[in-house]
DNA sequence: CGACGTGTAAC
DNA sequence: CCTTTTACACGTCG
């Protein structure tokens, strides 16, 4: 009997915690019933975060359409929209849109355009993430305005308790920062994420195991998390419209169109299957990009801007206590074609110590691309390793994100 | 297999 | 006219 239970536990652990050390088995029996019951995962998304934060700290713009912009500095209105609040979205303004177009749509209306202030948003975000950390077994911050919480142990399989936790979190965030958020709760990260997308803003959607199939089945494939524009084009040709179509589609045909791995992946998405753990991940690369004031036709013309970028990249990298092995430049020419060049070197701690490598890559790029005219450039270090002591995963995660 | 470059997706 | 940052998968080459 003991043997049987162990076999069962090991197989569960394989499915659920592939990356865990075998010493996790020590805790396995204590978690037997949790394993048996499955997990409860919560995903939280702060509603039009940047715009809402600005609205909160500037009483004079309350209730107005607000558009947060990334100005590229090339001309008065060059750049793109980062976030539009719901009032602005009613006018057709949305993220990613050129600022000039957003201003056309806003013509004659009282719309507030603001440059983004990431520093401030990060401060607000950090406070909220701290709050979330207190509510969960594990926290995974995936971006400045999104996080996953594992509530499995905390709620012991009780979905109504999980809903209570969500409501509590929502009211705390409102109290503390006057912000709303959308929350999804499900048996894995994918389902939780789809739940939080389902009702916005200020939503709360719970999808239990038994409800996954019908929820995912009725959703258009274009709304599935992880399925983007290119994939949709192919799915469309195959006549696949919603989750049900994809979940039940002939695998061989999918494989012919997407390759084995991607076929498997998108079909699992359509079935609401996912088993990745909620855990704070360390960054694997750091980069910094910028649009040039003026188009550049030679390496020497971009060195000035590149050195500024490297100074910032250096700070970012040092702050995380990261070392790197790979150095890259990223170029975007006037036709918006992106290219990268990279080189792997002996492990280094100092970005500025590797300036000559960035410069050489840039020179080589111009040598290899005769007549190219650059609009934007970027620098990146990857192949990161971390030296700082990992006091607790929580603190380290916060430090690194 | 590691290094390098590109494409897709999400934020 | 067209921003920024990251992850990951895949093909290719030596």
CATH class of one domain: Alpha Beta
Mean pLDDT: 89
CATH superfamily of one domain: DNA polymerase, Y-family, little finger domain
- Report the radius of gyration as a whole number of Å: 24 Å
What does the overall shape look like? globular
Please give the number of β-strands. 13
In helices, the fraction of residues equals: 40-55%
Strand order across the largest sheet: 5-6-1-7-8
Topology (SSEs and partners):
Elements: H1 2-16, H2 25-28, H3 32-37, E1 41-46, H4 49-57, E2 66-71, E3 79-84, H5 86-89, H6 99-105, E4 112-115, H7 118-133, E5 138-143, E6 146-150, H8 152-155, H9 159-177, E7 181-186, H10 189-198, E8 204-206, H11 209-217, H12 229-237, H13 243-247, H14 251-258, H15 260-270, E9 285-296, H16 299-319, E10 322-333, E11 338-348, H17 355-368, E12 374-382, E13 385-386, H18 393-400
The structure holds a DNA duplex (11 and 14 nucleotides).
Short description:
With 401 residues, the protein is of the alpha+beta class. It has helices spanning 2-16, 25-28, 32-37, 49-57, 86-89, 99-105, 118-133, 152-155, 159-177, 189-198, 209-217, 229-237, 243-247, 251-258, 260-270, 299-319, 355-368, 393-400; strands spanning 41-46, 66-71, 79-84, 112-115, 138-143, 146-150, 181-186, 204-206, 285-296, 322-333, 338-348, 374-382, 385-386. Among the domains are: 1-37, no CATH class; 53-116, 3-Layer(aba) Sandwich (MutS, DNA mismatch repair protein, domain I), CATH 3.40.1170; 213-270, DNA polymerase, domain 1; 285-400, Dna Ligase, domain 1 (2-Layer Sandwich), CATH 3.30.1490.100.
């Amino acid at each position: 009997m003991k043997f049987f239970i162990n076999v069962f536990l090991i197989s569960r652990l394989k499915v659920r915690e592939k990356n865990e050390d075998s010493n996790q088995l020590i805790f396995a029996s204590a978690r037997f019933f949790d394993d048996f019951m499955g997990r409860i995962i919560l995903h939280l998304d702060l509603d039009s975060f940047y715009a809402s934060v600005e609205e909160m700290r500037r009483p004079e713009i309350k209730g107005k359409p607000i558009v947060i912009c990334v100005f590229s500095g090339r001309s008065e209105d060059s750049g793109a929209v980062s976030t539009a609040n719901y009032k602005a979205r009613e006018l057709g303004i949305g993220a990613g849109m050129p600022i000039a177009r957003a201003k056309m749509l806003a013509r004659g209306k009282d719309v507030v355009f603001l440059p983004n202030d990431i520093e401030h948003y990060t401060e607000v975000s950090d406070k909220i993430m701290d709050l979330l950390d207190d509510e969960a077994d594990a926290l995974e911050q995936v971006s400045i305005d999104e996080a996953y919480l594992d509530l499995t142990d905390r709620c012991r399989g009780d979905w109504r308790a999980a809903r209570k936790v969500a409501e509590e979190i929502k009211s705390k965030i409102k109290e503390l920062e006057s912000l709303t958020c959308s929350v999804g709760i499900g048996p894995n990260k994918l389902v939780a994420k789809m739940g939080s997308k389902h009702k916005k803003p200020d939503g709360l959607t719970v999808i239990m195991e038994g409800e996954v199939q019908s929820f995912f089945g009725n959703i258009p494939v274009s709304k599935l998390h992880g399925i983007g524009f290119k994939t949709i084009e192919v799915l469309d040709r195959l006549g696949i419209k919603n989750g049900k179509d994809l979940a039940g589609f002939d695998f061989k045909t999918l494989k012919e169109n997407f390759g084995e791995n991607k076929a498997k992946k998108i079909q699992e998405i359509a079935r609401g299957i996912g088993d990745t753990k909620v855990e704070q991940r360390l960054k694997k690369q750091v980069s910094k990009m910028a649009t040039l004031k003026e188009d550049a036709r030679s390496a020497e013309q971009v060195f000035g801007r590149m050195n500024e970028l490297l100074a910032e990249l250096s700070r970012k990298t040092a702050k995380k206590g990261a070392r790197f092995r790979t150095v890259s430049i990223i170029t975007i020419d006037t036709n918006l074609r992106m290219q990268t060049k990279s080189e792997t070197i002996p492990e280094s701690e100092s970005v500025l110590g590797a300036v000559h490598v960035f410069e050489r890559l840039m020179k080589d790029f111009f040598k290899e691309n005769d007549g190219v005219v650059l609009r934007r450039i970027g620098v990146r270090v990857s192949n990161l390793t971390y030296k700082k002591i990992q006091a607790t995963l929580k603190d380290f995660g916060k430090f690194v994100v």
